[in-house]
Amino acid sequence: MAIIDVSIVPIGTETPSVSAYVANIHKVLEKYNGEVKYQLTPMNTIIEGDLPLLLQVVQEMHEVPFENGISRVATTIRIDDRRDKKSTMEGKLASVQAKLDQN
User: Which of 30, 36, 56, 99 has the greatest number of beta carbons closer than 10 A?
Assistant: First the structure.
């Protein structure tokens, strides 16, 4: 199971706001509900699942601004692919919280 942190930035929009683009990109994730887990944050989106599927999903997400008239898109991805044990978004947060609780 992999976790990907993805940020997709449309370049050359008419306004500084990109929330409409984010909302359209988010619709791609909704198509994969049940196959991948995802969490929208104020600065990026985190998705969890099998790496080949996640990469397919990221590619689809990357295409959305182009489909909406943007000519340039900057996409940044960071992949956490741990294979020695199961790693989940919740598990990573719980591990940090447990250490905070020890203090």
Answer: 36
Measured between alpha carbons, how far is 101 from 11 in angstroms, rounded to an integer?
Answer: 42
CA 2 to chain CA centroid, nearest Å:
11
Residues 15-72 have pLDDT tens digits of 999 999 999 999 999 999 999 999 999 999 999 999 999 999 999 999 999 999 999 9
- pTM value is 0.89
Which strand (E) or helix (H) includes residue 102? none
**Among candidate residues 9, 2, 17, 14, the one with its CA nearest the CA of residue 66:** 9
CATH number of the CATH domain containing 89: 3.30.70.930
* Structural domains in the chain (count): 1
